[in-house]
Structures are given as structure tokens and as C-alpha cells.
């Protein structure tokens, strides 16, 4: 049975390195499903979750990825991300605090007039919402 070796790397180091039967990512153009033998591909990633169906266990791992790129070649799926967190490693309280801060900035009138500040707050909000969403997949 063919498998995919999945590696997720950030500037801080390796976040994930396991074998999988399927990987699902969200590129900036939409969702992409990767199976063993997939044609070589490189895609830019959106702020979203990466879902990985593990081979050795009958489970799915979910990782919050905040942008980056994915390359699939020779049954190796490499994801290089700005930051990434496994569901089990997410500090949910910190994610909710970041979400609240971003919403407060966006609600202020000066953010509407400062497009750079608004853009940063929107990205922070998307990252926080992604982390909160992925945290719901942690095993208890």
C-alpha cells in the first residue's frame, strides 16, 4: 500500500512528521486533496487547517497552519508554514484573547481609516479563529 510521508516545518522547526493515506489542505484557490501517487504540485496555502489521515492509526490529525506553501513530490508532502500548531498544542485561552483583541481593533473607527492596521487585525482574527476551530479536534 502506497503512503505519503507528511512533513510540516516552520521557522521554529519540525511540527509534524508522519505517514498518511490522505492529506487535505486549503490553498488560496480552494481545497486540495492529496493521495499517494499524486502528481507533483506546489501550492500556496491559506490560513486554515491541514487534515491528515494517519496510516498507522485509524485517526485524523488536524494542524492549524497560518499560510505557507505545500509541495507534493514522490509521495512526500512537505508543508513549509509561517507557523503551525497541532490541535493538542493550541492554547485556547490565548487564541480567544487574540480573537478579542483583533475584533476590538477592527471595531475602532481609526482602524477603518488605517488600511495597514485593519489588514493586520483581519489576519490576526483569521489566525485566531483558525486556531480555535482546530483546537476542537484535540483528543481528550
In angstroms, what is the radius of gyration?
Answer: 16 Å
Termini distance? 31 Å
Mean pLDDT: 90
**Which regions have little confidence, pLDDT < 50, spanning 5+ residues?**
none
Query: What profile does the largest beta sheet have?
Result: 5 strands, mixed, barrel
User: How many helices does DSSP assign?
Assistant: 3
Q: Give the name of the CATH superfamily of the largest domain.
A: F0F1 ATP synthase delta/epsilon subunit, N-terminal
The strand order across the widest sheet is 1-2-4-5-6
Give the CATH level 1 class of the largest domain. Answer: Mainly Beta
**What is the overall shape?**
elongated
Fraction in helix: 25-40%
Strand content: over 45%
CATH third-level topology of the largest domain = ATP Synthase, domain 1
CATH architecture of the largest domain: Sandwich
User: How do the SSEs run, as a string of H and E?
Assistant: EEEEEEEHHH
The computed structural class is alpha+beta
The overall number of domains is 2
Subunit structure: F-type ATPases have 2 components, CF(1) - the catalytic core - and CF(0) - the membrane proton channel. CF(1) has five subunits: alpha(3), beta(3), gamma(1), delta(1), epsilon(1). CF(0) has three main subunits: a, b and c.
Membrane topology: Peripheral membrane protein
Subcellular location: Cell membrane
Function: Produces ATP from ADP in the presence of a proton gradient across the membrane.
Amino acid at each position: 500500500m502506497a503512503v505519503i510521508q507528511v512533513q510540516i516545518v516552520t521557522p521554529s522547526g519540525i511540527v509534524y512528521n508522519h505517514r498518511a493515506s490522505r492529506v487535505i489542505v486549503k490553498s488560496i484557490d480552494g481545497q486540495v486533496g492529496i493521495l499517494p501517487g499524486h502528481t507533483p504540485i506546489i501550492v500556496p496555502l491559506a490560513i486554515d487547517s491541514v487534515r491528515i489521515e494517519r496510516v498507522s492509526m485509524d485517526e485524523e490529525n488536524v494542524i492549524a497552519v497560518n499560510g505557507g506553501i505545500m509541495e507534493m513530490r514522490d509521495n512526500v508532502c512537505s508543508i513549509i508554514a509561517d507557523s503551525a500548531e497541532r490541535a493538542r498544542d493550541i492554547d485556547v485561552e490565548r487564541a480567544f484573547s487574540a480573537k478579542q483583541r483583533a475584533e476590538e481593533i477592527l471595531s475602532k473607527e481609526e482602524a477603518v481609516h488605517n488600511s495597514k492596521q485593519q489588514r493586520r487585525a483581519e489576519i490576526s482574527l483569521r489566525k485566531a479563529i483558525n486556531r480555535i476551530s482546530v483546537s476542537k479536534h484535540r483528543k481528550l
